[in-house]
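Last lecture ended with a question: if I hand you only a sequence, what can you say about the shape of the protein? Today we answer it with a concrete record. The protein is Protein FIZZY-related 2. Below, first the input exactly as provided, then the predicted structure, then a couple of comments.
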Amino acid sequence: MEGHRLRIGALAWSSSMLSSGSRDKTILQRDIRAQDDFVNKLAGHKSEVCGLKWSYDNRELASGGNDNRLFVWNQHSTQPVLKYCEHTAAVKAIAWSPHLHGLLASGGGTADRCIRFWNTTTNSHLSCMDTGSQVCNLVWSKNVNELVSTHGYSQNQIIVWRYPTMSKLATLTGHTYRVLYLAISPDGQTIVTGAGDETLRFWNVFPSPKSQAGGETDTLLGRIFMEVKLEHHPLEELKSDDSLGLMCIELAAFALACAMAG
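The predicted structure:
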């Protein structure tokens, strides 16, 4: 697939539509069923597009950029319908809530360190939490109203938060470099993280729907139960030199998480 002039740093799926964000400041929409290179080109960011995420109903696309901007596009627009400028560093971490329509979370880079929450239905900024570290990724639990953030400088940690109080439920440590990638298993219980320390780590972080309904406590929550060493593909090297290789590692991490979920 061609179309971008510079490296591609973000991908997001919406049914048969694939969205890609690039250092050329654009987002391309491709229908993989069609032979055209791309269906739409979305322009609005003034720097590299480094974060993309479709809402659960596939009606809204959120994009983050190295211009410190967070934009929301609808499925038919070629210009952003919502623009948020409160972050003071790159916005790579983006996550839509599966529990409340229009609830969007975003995380800023090293100079910002904040997780912000937005109501895209009312176009309002809801709250802000200073995490103390670069926010690299965000993902919501599918089973409970909680979310996970992964971090870079200076803590390189993983935090589980309860929403909306933003109380810390767990702080997971083990990675020795920034935690660049995060994926959640289909059953919503396990996450896999990839870091610049050349490892993938699998964690039990969320309760199963069965234990949640029965009021049980899962003693494995917060424990790492597998570590995979990437001997020949340092994530930090791929971050700067090989975006395609980096995407392959991200997809491999997700596939491994799916396999572990059975």
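Comments.
1. The chain has a mean pLDDT of 84.
2. The first strand starts at residue 8 and ends at 14.
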